[in-house]
Amino acid sequence: MAKKRLTLASVLAFTLSVSALTGCSSGGGDNEKNASPSPSGSASAPASSGASGESGAKDTITALLPPVSATYQDNFEQMAKDFNALYPNLTLKIEPASWEDMTQKLDTQVNAGSPPDIAFIGSDGISKYVQQGMLMDISDTATPEMIADYEPAPLEYMKNGKGLYGFPAYMEIHAIGGNKQFLEEAGIDWKNVQKNGWTYDEFREAIKKGVVKEGDKTKRYGFVFATAGVASKDYLNILVKNAGMPSAFTKDLKYAYTSKNYLEVLKDVRQLIDDGSMPKELSSIDAGKRWNMFLTGQTMITGKGLATFENSANKNNSKIDANDGSAVEGSIKADYIVLPVPSFLGQPAVSTPAVDGYVTFRGKKEPTAEHKANVVKAAYFLASGKIAAQTNNELFVAHITKTGKEAAASMTVNRNPDNQAAVEVLLSHAAPARPDIPTELGAKAIKLEDEVIIPKLQALLANEIKPEDMYEAVKSAAIKEFGQDGVVTD
Q1: Which of 84, 97, 312, 327 has the most beta carbons within 10 angstroms of its beta carbon?
Q2: Percent helix, strand and coil across the chain, each rounded to 5?
Q3: C-alpha–C-alpha distance, residues 427 and 281, integer Å
Q4: How far apart (Å, rounded) are the C-alpha atoms in residues 378 and 380?
Q5: CA-CA distance, 264 to 259, in Å (whole number)?
């Protein structure tokens, strides 16, 4: 554990040295990274990727990539050309996917035994595909120069056991975000909250003050969080980390969500809706809807909030100023303020990091050593240098490679310094990577989440079941999956 804390401190120190850039996926790897243009390709090979024009047999590397940033997919042709210019014998064939159908497309290909060589996914999905035997361990192929280009902490998230399964694109922090004007109208000292955090009770009272009613109708909510579609698991995952459960498994590998603290968080989830601070129809609000509600002034605070949302709000503000009809319909000017998730039950605040990136897959047959090396070159090409610099700048996330930082040195980023400092605080207590969790346990936890937690959470949000009902369902399923001795009993 001490080693993990040191690597996290390392990435934080690196982050603090970046004057205009901070941040960091599940947004990264989030399914809502929609705020910025993307790379136009790296013009020259990074030192660690090998010399351009090197000889070798012709080979094609396939990649399944979602819209990492607003125009990321628009640049696929250029990215492929730039890669081919570096490696004339290699072809990078990119298949686009939306965030909504990314998992389905990938799983279809995986189940058919012919996945892409590279897929952009969240690191939390690695254990699932390792369990299926469809990921390619590149720990023996990634060059020392490639590894040395990275900050240690985010690279840890791409590991499972001793295996390395790709390169991270960024380290993103999942937070929440507020409308500065509304926060100040409600008397909330948001600068103090950014620095010192807040408890659940403080947060609950604050969002009550953000509610604005017109008769019986709520014109503005205090808090809205996307809980439908691809964001269905985010809300609970972010909250429980701040209730003494930084991971689904304790350090001694017991399943954590059978803790009594889990039940208390479920009660609080329901309480905020019953207070009237959150919409009764919360279970039907997806990522697009909640962001629209923020831009149109229908909520004071939104979640999950990513660093890139400041950029999205700024761009919409510019469109409003231009009065050219391109702004979101009915939107108002909004200064986006990064805020931490509240802490529960006297537990320390733990930020939820999302490290998303270019994960390396294999088919049913063992790949040749040459093809494996070519896949590594392609994954590193996408995750470093100019491509990483432009993407991360536009997502307002920290650079995690030296080549990315160097390429970004001449790029300008218009960032609110208070938000920059707030993300630095969040990074300082981000949950560490857990490559020690065995593959089979990680896969079982994902299965339990998909089959029990997400459906029950939707029912709880819709007021169809009580918190106690959901807790008992999760506890029963966990004991069945992990055994009585394999779960937390407190």
Answers
A1: 312
A2: 45, 15, 35
A3: 32
A4: 5
A5: 9
Cα four-point dihedral sign 240, 243, 246, 248: negative
d(CA 420, CA 350): 18
Work out the pLDDT band at 55, boundaries 50, 70, 90. low
Q: Enumerate the H helices of 226-329 as residue ranges.
A: 234-241, 260-274, 287-295, 308-322
Does the CA dihedral 283-289-294-298 come out positive or negative? negative
Give residue 343's identity as a one-letter amino acid code: S
Q: How far apart are CA 330 and CA 343, in angstroms?
A: 34
Topology given in CATH for the domain delimited by 2-171+353-428: D-Maltodextrin-Binding Protein; domain 2 (3.40.190)
Q: What pLDDT, in 10s, does the model give residues 373-430?
A: 999 999 999 999 999 998 988 888 888 999 999 999 988 888 899 998 998 899 889 8
Of 179-183, 199-203, 234-238, which gets the smallest average pLDDT? 234-238
What's the distance, CA 283 to chain centroid?
Answer: 20
- SS3 state of residue 364: coil
Homologous superfamily of domain range 174-351:
Periplasmic binding protein-like II (3.40.190.10)
Of residues 14 and 176, the one with the higher pLDDT is 176
* pTM (predicted TM-score): 0.76
Fold: same for 2-171+353-428 and 174-351: yes
CA 172 to CA 148: how far, in whole Å?
20
Closest-CA residue to 23 (of 425, 383, 358, 434) = 425
* Cβ-based neighbours of 407, under 8 Å, separated by 6 or more: 42, 385, 386, 388, 389, 390
pLDDT tens for each residue of 95-105: 999 988 999 99
Return phi, psi of residue 104, to 5°. -65, -45
User: Is the N-terminal amide bond of 304 cis, ω within 30° of 0?
Assistant: yes
Where are the chain's structural domains? 2-171+353-428, 174-351
Contact 336/63 with Cβ under 8 angstroms?
A: no
pLDDT for residue 41 is more than 50: no
Q: Which amino acid is at 191?
A: K
Tokens for 407, please give them.
């390429």
191 has pLDDT over 80: yes
Helix axes 234-241, 260-274, angle to 10 degrees: 120
